[in-house]
Structure formats: C-alpha cells, structure tokens
C-alpha cells in the first residue's frame, strides 16, 4: 500500500507518530512542498492508494479525485475539510476518515492573542530594531480598558473571552445566528454587525468560511472601523476582502492588522501584504503546534491501520462534512 503524506512543511509527520504500527508492506512518501492542483498533483499522486492531508492545504476537488485511479483512502486532520469534495470521493468508493480533537483545541485563540499583543506593542518591529542596535522607536497601546469585538462566538471565539476579561476589556460579539442570551452566557454582549465594527478597538475574526461569510469584512465594514483599530484574522483569509484591507492599511484608515490566514496560501513572495509596516504576518500557524501534529498524525496512523484491517474509523460522509461547514 503506497501512502502519501501531503504538505508536511516541517517534516514532522514521521517524528510525531509511530508509523511502524502500519501493516507490513506499507510504503510512506512525505511531500514537504505544495503540489499544484489539479495537473501536478494528479501526475505526482497517481500511484498512491492513501493520501494523508493536513486539512485544507492541498485542495481535493472532483477534477483531481477523478484523476487518481489507485486512490482508496483519504485521512484528514480535523472534523471536516472545506476543500475536499467528499461526495466525489464517496462516488468513487474512496473512504475518508477524520482525526479527533486533542490538546491543541485552544491553539488558534492563543495565536490570536499573540498577534494582538504583537500589533498593539509593535513587538516584531522593535525586536528587529534591537538586533540592529536601535532603541525605542515606537509607542504602542495597552489593551486594558479597550473593547474587543468578536466576529463569531463559536468555539475559538469563546476561548477569547476569559483572557479579554482578565485584561479588563469589554467584549462585544456578532454573528448572523448569535442571540443576546448566548452571547451573555459566554461573557460577551451581543451587538449589531455595524456596531461591532464601529465600537471595536480590536476586531478578532472567528467565523467558519462559507459562502455566507466569504467577503463579509469588506470595504464598507472596514470604513466603519476606528482609524486606531486593529484587525486580527486567524480564521480564514477570504472572510476579508483582501484588496480592501490592504487599501485601508496603506491609507492609515486602520492602525494595524495581525494576519495568519490569506486568500492564497502559501502567501506569494511578492504579495503586497509583505510590504506593509503596520501588519504582523504569520504563516497559518493557528493550529500548528507540537501537540496538534502529535495528535493529528497519531490519529492518521490509527485511521490507516483500521482501514487496512477493513474496519475504518471516524468515517466522514459528505452530509456530515457539509453540515459542519454550514455552522
């Protein structure tokens, strides 16, 4: 059985789990770079029976799945996969198994706070200036007493609230289906969408990417924000109109941004976001912790072994995938 481990940029897959638990005869190949979809991926992955995905790094549309005649099983990390056509896989008789949830569940919200502090206090800039021999070039802001706006109060959004309260921040929130009662239960105050953008000193995004949320932060919404405000996005890049965000940051209509996700990933080398001094960029590190890789690849090995034994675990159906994406 030929197994491909995709998008293992850090080469951690073989260190994070015991692949010797797989049946004899399994041949594992690790890819540490993105494969262009569909043509390059179809050519390179054609011999493989099993594909191991870090969720949403390599898209798996129908056009690619139909060009992989030997593919029998896909192991994904997480509970769903936005860029995998599960229905197309099922039609081909390909089984898809997901991983469980480990100790990394708060990793993304922790990174959101890291980006927030980094932007508010200009930490990357000042750290680099210290290496050059400089001393105190900027004055940042404190977060205490300011207003944190949460666009989305799901699992990651809720994790933000206790830290904000510890910092003596007011927490406001909005999403399409959020009620005042639900917001209050988790320590936030529900406001209307426009008020969220107007009132937030820091706006942190915690929505799932779907058609209804794509571009939900556009030029109109950014224009409502204070010129002193900060935007943090650890959710998904296309939730924000990237062009409108770049324009607002360039023109000083927004004080800064901390971004971990982008319309195109990996972010192209010549992308304009890389040139903006008021932006802190990280390469989609939200979930990428040692705990995540240990849990994800251990589950992946377990899922492959179960499939090889004819007893697949954690099977993901198209209906279940769609329902999770629709939340």
Polypeptide structure, described:
The chain has 327 residues and is α/β, with parallel strands linked by helices. It has two domains: 2-103 and 289-325, 3-Layer(aba) Sandwich (Rossmann fold); 107-281, Rossmann fold. It contains 13 helices and twelve strands. It has helices at residues 13-16, 39-45, 62-65, 86-91, 107-120, 123-131, 155-166, 180-185, 193-199, 219-224, 242-250, 290-308, 318-325; strands at residues 2-5, 27-30, 50-53, 73-76, 95-97, 147-151, 170-174, 189-190, 202-205, 230-233, 256-259, 279-281. Helix 5 crosses helix 7. The longest helix has 19 residues, at 290-308.
Radius of gyration: 21 Å
**Number of H/I helices:** 13
Secondary structure tally: strands: 12
The second-level CATH architecture of the largest domain is 3-Layer(aba) Sandwich
Q: What is the CATH topology descriptor of the largest domain?
A: Rossmann fold
Gap from first CA to last CA:
36 Å
Please give the CATH class of the largest domain.
Alpha Beta
In one word, what is the shape? globular
Q: What class, by secondary structure content?
A: alpha/beta
CATH homologous superfamily designation of the largest domain: NAD(P)-binding Rossmann-like Domain
The structural domain count equals: 2
Major sheet description: 7 strands, parallel
Strand neighbour order, sheet with most strands: 8-7-6-9-10-11-12
Summed over residues and divided by their number, the pLDDT gives a mean of 95
The share of residues in helices is: 25-40%
What fraction of residues sit in β-strands? 5-15%
